[in-house]
Amino acid sequence: MAELWIDPVDLEKRDLFRGPPGGPPPPDPATRFRFVKRDKGGHSPGYDVRDANGVVWSVKLGREAQAEVVTSRLLWAIGFHQLPTYYLSGWTVTGLVGDEGEVDQSNGGRFRPEIPGYSPIGEWRWDENPLSNSYAMGGLVVAMMIINNWDLKTSNNKLYEVTGGDGSKRRWYVVRDLGASLGSNEQAQWIRWSRLRGAQGSKNDLEDFEKAGFIDGVENGHVKFAYRGPNDWIGKAITPGHVRWTAKLMSRLSDQQWRDAFRAAGYTPEHTARFIAKFREKIATGLTLQ
Questions:
Q1: pLDDT tens per residue, range 237-284
Q2: Mean pLDDT of 128-141
Q3: With 60 as the cut, is the pLDDT of residue 188 above it?
Q4: Calpha distance 290→283 (Å, rounded)
Q5: What pLDDT, in 10s, does the model give residues 194-238?
Q6: pLDDT at residue 187 in the model
Q7: How far is CA 12 from the centre of its chain?
Q8: Is the pLDDT of residue 191 over 50?
Q9: How many C-beta atoms lie closer than 10 Å to residue 51's C-beta?
Q10: Which of 106, 208, 240, 277 would staple 289 via disulfide (CB 3.0–4.6 Å)?
Q11: Per residue in 97-117, is it b (16+ CB within 10 Å) or e — as a string?
């Protein structure tokens, strides 16, 4: 079980502004990052860049950047393994256009470091892994529904080999690239009718997140989530107990911890308050689900 989830006995003390431990210090916005390569995977543009200390950072731009920083902190807070991520609202990359090119990035970016001893060694499927029937895996699915992550594809699920200071090795099951969250997790009706694959919901959209549903009911002992689109089978085996388990963990977060998670991602106080209110609404629903 420790490969997926560790009981967060210190949950109330976790620093959600700093986020998951490990790796180098947070990136310095005053640094001129050196371009390494473009990231051509996924829907959002990005780069790999190197800072003055030699640390290579994976940078994601666009609407996903803020959402990923918040949601990765929330998953880590309730015990699931996550890598450190940070948000810079403005930064500079050199070498992007020719050898001497320099571009000021006015759009924010998610920065995730390459950490020695943390090696991605493969992917894992929601329904075919040694922990697929564990209670924590069910709780993780519920967490995906609470944050409205609609991009539940296998390529976002990374298996890491983590090497300790004494040379010991352990594995982590990690849901990575959480940017398709904090919006609507319902696929547009015209896409469902046409059976197209691709964009399903919205990302980092406050109004969509506020309007989105959570649970439509319980049928034959299983929860019916207000989730529509590809991969909706992932939530078919979830019970009310799984929902209460995750909601109870999230309910332990303090007001300050919630605010710190959103502050780390550069959200305004007004938007932060509205996002938190919707989260608390979902958590209250989960706690009382029968």
A1: 999 999 999 999 999 999 999 999 999 999 999 999 999 999 999 999
A2: 94
A3: no
A4: 14
A5: 455 555 789 999 999 999 999 999 999 999 999 876 688 899 999
A6: 62
A7: 20
A8: no
A9: 17
A10: 240
A11: eeeeeeeebeebbbbbbebee
pLDDT tens for residues 65-90?
Answer: 999 999 999 999 999 999 999 999 98
d(CA 135, CA 157): 18
Q: Measured between alpha carbons, how far is residue 41 from residues 35, 60, 156, 183, 272 in Å?
A: 17, 10, 11, 21, 29
Q: In angstroms, rounded to a whole number, what is the distance separating the alpha carbons of residues 20 and 73? A: 7
Residue with tokens 């001497």: 100
Other beta carbons within 10 angstroms of residue 77's beta carbon come to 26
Structural tokens at position 35: 């371009």
What's the mean per-residue pLDDT of the chain? Answer: 90
Tokens coding 87: 């948000």
Location of structure tokens 């640094």? 31
Separation CA 214–CA 107 (nearest Å): 31
Helix (H) or strand (E) holding 92: strand 91-94
Taking the C-alpha atoms of residue 212 and residue 158, their distance in angstroms, rounded to an integer, is 28
5-31 pLDDT per residue, tens: 999 999 999 999 999 999 999 999 998
**How many other CB atoms sit within 10 Å of the CB of residue 251?**
14
Of 150, 51, 129, 108, whose CA–CA distance to 264 is shortest? 108
- 69, 110 contact by CB (below 8 A): yes
Amino acid at 161: E
Question: Could you write out the DSSP letters of every residue in 169-226?
Answer: EEEEEEE----S-SS--B--HHHHHHT--S--S-SS-HHHHHH---EEEEETTEEEES
- Contact predicate 264/86, CB 8 Å: yes
